[in-house]
Write a structure and sequence with these properties.
Elements: H1 13-42
Length: 43
């Protein structure tokens, strides 16, 4: 039986537009969390 090779499909532009804001929101959340943790440790 031949082995099927499945290559990843590139994201369509409209799908990419939906993903980018989510990644930015997550990055912002983690940055804010890190700042809050930093403030707690420095007090």
């Amino acid at each position: 039986m031949p082995v099927l090779v499945v290559e990843p499909m590139p994201l369509e532009l409209r799908e990419l537009r939906a993903v980018v804001p989510l990644l930015a929101q997550e990055a912002s959340y983690f940055a804010a969390s890190a700042r809050m943790a930093s403030l707690r440790w420095s007090s």
